[in-house]
TrEMBL record:
SUPFAM superfamilies: Ribonuclease H-like. InterPro entries: DUF659, RNaseH-like_sf. Pfam families: DUF659 (PF04937). This is DUF659 domain-containing protein. Residues 36-132 form the DUF659 domain. It comes from the Eukaryota.
Amino acid sequence: MVSSFTIRTLVVGALTAPLQLHHHHARKNYPKMLLTDRKRGTILIFLVNSPKVIVFFKFVGASNICRTTDKNFEMIDVVVEEVGQDNVVQVVTDNSINYKAYGDILMRKKSTICSTPCVTHCVDLMLEYLEKNILVHEDTIPKDLGRSGATRFVTSYLTLGCLYENKKDLIRMFTSKEWKSRKCSKLRDGKTIVDVVLDKKNWKNIVICLRGVSPLIKVLRLVD
């Protein structure tokens, strides 16, 4: 029986074949920055970035590969050689311990290449630290506030920003006769929501959180 991973590998290969041709056509015209991306821990996707365009280069099925520093180095070193060491000026990966160690090995063995962590991932880790370790952030952001995507922690702060922008409308809504006449306003959850919306300290804490992360979000928008 064919596994789902095998099917996914074949499909990705078929869809990305034209992009590989485009890369090989343009590879000698520009210096390259090699990017890696992990998808669910099973597929490593390699992208090549040049001043003109970012294109897909190849993917590697990593389900059966041990995630050690040596194995990571072997996988990415092969890709560097395929692109051509003279064509690569920088390798960008995420911030896992294995990739950091790999970057050190890469720069020792290939002195012309710089290995750096992904800026987006760095900023997201900073936002994660703020949310989990700074009391005013931890107390202000609800645990079930929606998050999505690679920058899941920035979503929490963008949601807070949206709430603050609509502060007056929210207060008006939850103090209106229409709200008070609703059955849900008498329930415990309804009363809790009203308490949160009318809590001046809570709005002050939201402002503190947004001021703290605003520079990071600006950087994230520039690089993501």
